[in-house]
C-alpha cells in the first residue's frame, strides 16, 4: 500500500536528552485502574487485599452508589492480619469462597496486591494458584500488584493484562491482537475500520468476557492502544508474538499512522485504505480545527502522571498548533513511544520520573498557558493563576481514534476558554 507514515520534523525528540529525576512524586496508585477494568471485563471481579484506605480510594474513585453491586471489592486487612496473628492464606480462601458463593456470575477473579499486603509479604501468587485449582473450571484466579509503591496508576492495567498473557491459549494462526482496555464504543470503531479493510482475524486483550477465548503464538502480531503497557508487551513477546510499532491513535495523524502500520502488515492496498479512512479522517480534521482555534500558539507543560504524555504532546503540537515546554512522563518506554518521540519537534524538555518540587519550580518559571497534571497539583497551580487540565480525565474519557479526535482537542481547549471568560467577566 502507499506509505502513510507521517513526515517527521527536521529534528525530532527521538535522540533528545532525557532529564531523569527521582524524588517525591504526585500520582495515584495502580488500584485506580480497577475502575475502568471492571467495567471492561464483564464477568471478572477484582478483589483487593488491602486496608480500609484502599477500599475508600476505590469507592471514591468509582463514585459507587449504595445500591450498586460493582465487580470489585476489598478484603480488609485487620490488626490481627497485620500482626501475623491470623493465617493470611486461610483468610483469603474463606473470603474468596464467600464471594464466589454469592456471585456465581464471576468467571475471572483477580487478587490484587496493595501496599499493605506487599509490605507484610502476603504471597498472592500462591493463593491464586491454589484457588484456581479449587474453583476450576468455572473460575480462573489470577493475581497482580496494584500497589502504589514505585508505580503509577495506569500501571495497574499493565500489571493486570500482563498477568493474563501466560494463561492465553496457544495458536499458530495468523492473527492480529489489539492490546489495551478502551470503552466498548471506541473498541468497536477500531474493529469496524479494520474489518472494512479486510482484516478480520482480530482479538482484543482484555476480552469483554472469559468465554471470548484469546490465544497467542508465533504468528500473532499485536498493536498496542495505550503507551503504558510495557510489561504486557514484553509478556506477549515472550509468547512469540510480534509488536507492530506505530504512533498511538490520538487525532487524525496518529490514528492514520496506527492503522497504516497494521494495514501494511496485512497487505491492504492503498485504494482500500483510502476508501475506509478518508471520510472519518475528514470528520476528525474538521472537529480538531474547531478546538485548534483556541489552542493554536498556546504553550503546554506536562507533569508525569498517566504515561500518555508523549503521544498527547505529539498530537497537540502537530495537529493543534501548541508549543510543548516540558513533556514529563513517569516511565519512558522507547519501544512503545519511540514513533511519537520521533514526530515531536525538538524543543521541549523530555523528563522521566519526578522530583515534584523541582518540576513545580520549572513550571512556575515557564508560566505555560496550560499545565497537565494530577489532581493533587491542579488546585495549588490554579491558585497561583496557572490553567490546568486533570491528567486522569484523559484516561477515563474516550479519546482514541477518529471519532473522538475533536473531543480530545476540546479537553484542552475548554480550560483555556473558561479562563478567558473568567478574565473577561472580571474586567467587565
From TrEMBL:
Top enzyme class: oxidoreductase
Molecular-function GO term, any one: ATP binding
Domain of life: Bacteria
Co-factor binding comment: Binds 1 [4Fe-4S] cluster per heterodimer. The cluster is bound at the heterodimer interface by residues from both subunits.
Record-linked Pfam families: Oxidored_nitro (PF00148)
Record-linked InterPro entries: LIPOR_BchN/ChlN (IPR050293), Nase/OxRdtase_comp1 (IPR000510), Protochl_reductN (IPR005970)
UniProt: [4Fe-4S] cluster binding residues: 29, 54, 115
Nitrogenase/oxidoreductase component domain location: 29-384
Cited SUPFAM superfamilies: Helical backbone' metal receptor (SSF53807)
Catalytic activity of the protein: chlorophyllide a + oxidized 2[4Fe-4S]-[ferredoxin] + 2 ADP + 2 phosphate = protochlorophyllide a + reduced 2[4Fe-4S]-[ferredoxin] + 2 ATP + 2 H2O
Example GO BP: photosynthesis, dark reaction
Keywords: 4Fe-4S, ATP-binding, Bacteriochlorophyll biosynthesis, Chlorophyll biosynthesis, Iron, Iron-sulfur, Metal-binding, Nucleotide-binding, Oxidoreductase, Photosynthesis
Listed cofactors: [4Fe-4S] cluster
Record's keyword annotation contains Ion transport: no
Annotated pathway: Porphyrin-containing compound metabolism; bacteriochlorophyll biosynthesis (light-independent)
The protein's Enzyme Commission number: 1.3.7.7
PANTHER family: LIGHT-INDEPENDENT PROTOCHLOROPHYLLIDE REDUCTASE SUBUNIT N
Subunit organization: Protochlorophyllide reductase is composed of three subunits; BchL, BchN and BchB. Forms a heterotetramer of two BchB and two BchN subunits.
Similarity-based family: Belongs to the BchN/ChlN family.
Function: Component of the dark-operative protochlorophyllide reductase (DPOR) that uses Mg-ATP and reduced ferredoxin to reduce ring D of protochlorophyllide (Pchlide) to form chlorophyllide a (Chlide). This reaction is light-independent. The NB-protein (BchN-BchB) is the catalytic component of the complex.
Protein name (database record): Light-independent protochlorophyllide reductase subunit N
